[in-house]
Amino acid sequence: MDWTHYRFRTQWALDASPAAVYDALEQAEEYPRWWPQVREVKRLDDTTGVIRIRATLPYDLVFTAREVTRDRAAGVLEIAMTGDLEGWARWTITGDGARCLAGYDQVVDVNKPLLRRLAVPGRPVFRANHRLMMRAGRRGLAAYLEAV
């Protein structure tokens, strides 16, 4: 087993239309406004940016995100990541009317030296850290969507 390889799958049920959720998730540079753990997004060009995240544990992860798929009709947003995290992440938004489901899939290898050194003993803590970050993101997005 490669202890630095992670697969995550999260589902967010939201009281908002798929179009509204897609619009919010499409604007990565706005994530810090509603997702506390996304500390900074610096857009480099129309399809690439540098993202800095910090969840509960005292370390930042910095990676370059490059758009791979932006398909409004299918409700899919996907990025490739390089840096402290290497891999991909994808949002898939489904539903109709006033409710939707935002599915988040991520497959990454951790490159940050500290996390690689702590890979075996830290793995359960790192996974819990990710769950907490995703829970806060869902709450933040729900509140953001209610306000707009």
Sum this structure up briefly.
With 148 residues, the chain is of the alpha+beta class. It is built from four helices and seven strands; from the N terminus they run E-H-H-E-E-E-E-E-E-H-H. It has a seven-stranded antiparallel beta sheet with strand order 1-7-6-5-4-3-2.
Blueprint (SSEs and pairs):
Layout: E1 5-14, H1 18-26, H2 31-34, E2 38-43, E3 48-53, E4 61-71, E5 76-83, E6 85-96, E7 99-110, H3 113-117, H4 119-147
Antiparallel strand pairs: 1-7, 2-3, 3-4, 4-5, 5-6, 6-7
CATH fold-level label: Alpha-D-Glucose-1,6-Bisphosphate, Chain A, domain 4
Query: Which blocks of ≥5 consecutive residues have pLDDT under 50?
Result: none
Give the number of helices.
4
User: Order of strands across the widest beta sheet?
Assistant: 1-7-6-5-4-3-2
What is the general shape?
Answer: globular
* Residues in helix, %: 25-40%
Q: What's the end-to-end separation, in Å?
A: 45 Å
Number of strands: 7
CATH superfamily: START domain
CATH class assignment: Alpha Beta
Radius of gyration: 15 Å
Strand content: 35-45%
Instruction: Report the structural category.
Output: alpha+beta
The H-and-E topology, N to C, reads as: EHHEEEEEEHH
